[in-house]
Amino acid sequence: MIPIAKPYIDENEINAVVEVLKSGVLSLGPKLVEFEQNFAQFMGMKYAIAVSSGTAGLHLGIKSLGIHEKDEVITSPFSFISSANSILFENAKPVFVDIDEDTLNIDPKKIEAAITPQTKAILPVHIFGQSCDMDLIMGIAKKYNLKILEDACESVGAKYKNKLVGTKGDLSVFAFYPNKQMTTGEGGMIITDNEEIYKTCASLRNQGRDSMSWLGHNRLGYNYRLNELSCALGIEQLKKLPMILSKRQKVAERYNQNLKHFPEIRLPYISPDNIPSWFVYVIRLNNGLNRNLVMEKLKEVGVSSKEYLPSIHLQPFYKDKYGFKEGDFPISEKVSNCTIALPFYTSMTFEDIDYVCEKLKEVIQVIKNESR
Ligand SMILES: *Cc1c(COP(=O)(O)O)cnc(C)c1O
């Protein structure tokens, strides 16, 4: 079976983790400091705070902006669920704005209509490794005095107008789950230039302590720390990131090349402002093709695939809580109903890519013939 995703790990990572095990320091040690410093330097930002997951990072991001009950945060319905959940964790209200049909990111033209006196922040999600139109979003935030928390969990190393994604908002969050471009097993990173935000996040992830000192707790905090094994893994992965991104770019180009003249599907769109950090390779099936059938038949020939992503507002507990229904965010829903993520990982060979493409074409042809 060709997997949908796979981490890119070699001897360097293995040795680094073994070294940590031998050192006996498994949390709050030198690897945490080094990983944060290296990440901040890579991003060109003053501060980086490593956390136990991207979701934890988003939660602290919301808290550090002082967002609480009755506040509203504008975000995208077409995302992994934790971007919106992080707002719910603080009993604030996620206000969804529909997406752009090409980039699949929040549509800046629709944001202003969603702003109310309760709106405190915008949480743009850079979906699938491509930046939102941040100039427009920053302009709106400035006009209405809103904060910006960037969900850059899928976009490490991507560029927007030649600047690294995640460097525009008040703070940004990255994630290192094993299917991401770089991984720490579980893990995430917050970056910011704002000292107040830095101090708050660093304290909140460590039980509300203001320093590493063991017993002074100045606020209600969490254990969102990233352990030393994960930090050591992250240090090695970050060193490789440019190489990882260039390999992933080549995988994406091969897919594009193989599939571009195939009329039954729509390829990923990259806007001219962006240099993506390829996270996944997601195609859209043209009208009338039964996605489940396509995925089932792909599975039969050893090709994994996934519906990426369901719209958040139609998840059961969002429907229950806010009464969302089909038709509320029609572009997001339309996209959610026709996307398929194909196998995509750093070490994917051209042979495997070609096999996936050949089978995809075959499967679609068979389905079309059967339905005649
Ligand atoms: C991966 C991801 C996250 C965070 O995921 P964790 O599994 O908590 O690290 C958040 N938002 C988006 C859009 C993601 O893709």
Question: Helix-strand pattern, N to C?
Answer: HHEHEHEEHEEEEEHHEEEHHHEH
Q: Could you give the count of β-strands?
A: 13
Give the proportion of residues in helices: 25-40%
Query: What integer value in Å does the Rg equal?
Result: 21 Å
Strand line-up of the largest beta sheet: 1-9-8-5-4-2-3
Could you say which overall geometry the principal axes of the C-alpha atoms support? globular
Which hetero compounds are present in the coordinates?
pyridoxal-5'-phosphate
The computed structural class is alpha/beta
Q: Alpha-carbon distance between the termini?
A: 30 Å
Mean pLDDT, to the nearest integer, reads 97
Number of helices: 11
Q: Which regions have little confidence, pLDDT < 50, spanning 5+ residues?
A: none
Describe the protein's topology:
Elements: H1 11-23, H2 30-43, E1 47-51, H3 54-64, E2 72-75, H4 82-88, E3 93-96, E4 119-123, H5 134-144, E5 147-151, E6 159-160, E7 163-164, E8 171-175, E9 188-192, H6 195-205, H7 228-259, E10 265-266, E11 274-275, E12 281-285, H8 291-300, H9 316-322, H10 330-336, E13 339-342, H11 350-370
Parallel strand pairs: 2-3, 2-4, 4-5, 5-8
Antiparallel strand pairs: 1-9, 6-7, 6-11, 8-9, 10-12, 12-13
Helix pairs in contact: 1-7, 2-7, 3-4, 3-6, 7-11, 8-11
The site of pyridoxal-5'-phosphate has 14 residues, from helix 3 and helix 4.
